[in-house]
Amino acid sequence: MAETLLAVESLSAGYDEALVLHEVGFALAEGETLALLGRNGMGKSTLLATIMGHTRRHAGAIRFAGRDIARIAPHLRARMGLAWVAQEREIFSSLTVTENLTVAARPGAWTVERVYAFFPRLRERRASMGNQLSGGEQQMLAIGRALTTNPRLILLDEPLEGLAPVIAEQIAQAIRRMNREEKLTTILVEQHAQIALGLADQAICLERGRIAYAGAAAALANDLATLDRLVGVRKEGARAISR
Amino acid sequence: MAVELLTLLFNGLAYGVLLFLMAIGLSVTMGMMNFVNLAHGAFAMLGGYLGISLTTRAGVPFLAALPLVFVAVGAVGAGIEVTLYRRFYRSPQLTHVLFTIGLTFMAVAGATYVWGSQIAAMRVPDWLIGQTMFLGLQVGSYRLFLLLVGGAIALALVFGLERTRFGAMVRATVDNRRMAQSLGIDVGRVFSLTFALGSGLAGLGGALAVNFLGGIQPAFPLGYLLVYFLIVVTVGGLGSTLGALAAALLLGLADAAAKFYAPVIASFAIYLVMVVLLMWRPHGILGRR
Fold it and tell me: B86-134: per-residue pLDDT in tens?
């Protein structure tokens, strides 16, 4: 059993006085991928933002690499090895693609060259400004930008959302390679539950800010009743991507 | 006619470069932290008076006084940012306005106490007095100096912001502060450094402005500077360096042209230009938002 990298303990958080998360707790071992599921507005993005330090924490602990980071500023969390790929991608629009990758890069295995090898499309667009990219390119850049900080844990917030199926497939493949070949510990928020479960080892489902399910990803993938209740899998019309 | 036009162009550009130096810090820091720093003009005033004191009382040569003023005013700016401004970033902008207007009044009163209320002038070296031939044009030596030095600094600044990693960090922070933070950029430190740099440049601009304007008074940051700086920032587009440069040059040219061709309406011709520009591009000529 690999060592625990992230342990969230009875975490309650939200924005200002409003609580969104209620006593959330889970642990993630180094090298594992966690699918974070739930319907819209159940607190998935808030949980990622809380781990990164962008919300108001009311109670609980966030232990990262053995240290409680709950009171640490976001930029210090990033330097400890946390990386966040936000739902809106949030590419720096007045920076070129290369500058987006280098502006916060830290030394390590993931260099700009390696990100370009990982996403060849970005190399072709390297001189373009951030606001000239397509949605898929923005998503590649958001992931690549997170990778050049050489994180130990990457938080991916709906990386396939709003992308054409063929582009979504490419991104999913990239995530799979990050997890399987690079052993990068990942938390993946995704509306397409079957895709996320196909990529993940563990899964948790949030319902109104509380953990409603926690277990192995493969078990949840086969438990259609639970999946339908917590995620609404039938409406979605699952698009499975082969392993 | 052509000579007249070229002279006008020259004077306008010299003035524009000066405005750019004084206003660029305000544009970048407002774009980055959404902090409305109406006391920015006080840094220019401080630079002007420091320059006068250094050259006139302390006997420091003019050219040596300029970098000293830049460093000193930059340090004062950093000190004020760390001790005062930092506490107000989360406050509503009305608080910024009231607080910094209050600071400006204090600066005006402080300057009156230290330097007196009469117009203070600066002694510049003999080679900066009178006229010089430049590209076949008879121009004021001091304006030529202003254009060359100011132009070089402006270019270095634009280049540095576009080509260095720190420049990329500044732009990233202006674009999206939260994401910059999430990637490990110490936004507070980037802002402090930017603020210090902007204040220093305002101080340097203030020192250079004294001789151009024929002297300064304590009320300098309230009337004249505040209005012109805000025009540069709004017309240029918040946080846009090139926009601020374009707006400052345009403002300088419009001012020079109005004073020459239509002195009767010169005092409000600038505002006319501003209104037209903002109707055309409400977010500034190179603004993004």
Answer: 899 888 989 999 999 999 999 999 999 999 989 888 888 889 888 888 8
For residue A79, give the nearest of B171, B184, B187 by CB distance. Answer: B184
* Partner-chain residue, chosen from B176, B186, B288, that has the shortest CB–CB distance to A75: B186
What is the C-alpha separation between A29 and B177, in angstroms, rounded? 31
Q: Where are the domains of chain A?
A: 4-81+152-236
Cβ separation of B184 and A149 shorter than 8 Å?
Answer: yes
A18: closest CA of chain B, how far (Å): 18
d(CA B99, CA B204): 24
The nearest CA of chain B is from the CA of A53 a distance in Å of 8
Query: Cβ atoms within 10 A of the Cβ of A135, count?
Result: 13
Q: For the domain A4-81+152-236, what is the CATH superfamily, name and number?
A: P-loop containing nucleotide triphosphate hydrolases (3.40.50.300)
**Domains identified in chain B and CATH numbers:** 2-112+140-280 (1.10.3470)
* pLDDT tens per residue across span B13-41: 999 999 999 999 888 888 877 888 999 99
How many Cβ pairs closer than 8 A exist between chain A and B? 66
Tokens representing B61? 């040569």
